[in-house]
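Recall the central idea of this unit: under ordinary conditions, the amino acid sequence of a chain determines the structure it adopts. In this exercise we apply that idea directly, starting from the sequence alone.
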Amino acid sequence: MFEEYQKAVNNLTINEENRLKMKVEILESEKTSYEKLDAKLDALQREFYQNKVRTGWAGLTKEDLSDAEIEQKLQQRRMQDKLRRERDKQLMQDL
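Accordingly, the structure predicted from this sequence is:
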């Protein structure tokens, strides 16, 4: 019976502390998931650009696409992803 009460306590209380704790936990787990995905994307994109240089794709050489330029491209993608997530979040809140 106590377990059933614990399940319903958030709906039965006026204090939002429990609800906010749960929301924080959910948001932190989502943030961690995004960070893991971003790290995987960075690694894949870095490998993609390095393969382009290594294979000479479209005549690219090490001078055409340096490590600094690859990092700049990664940074641009991260910024675009961040803006897209913020826009998507705003759209979901507007619904």
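Residues 2-94 form one domain.
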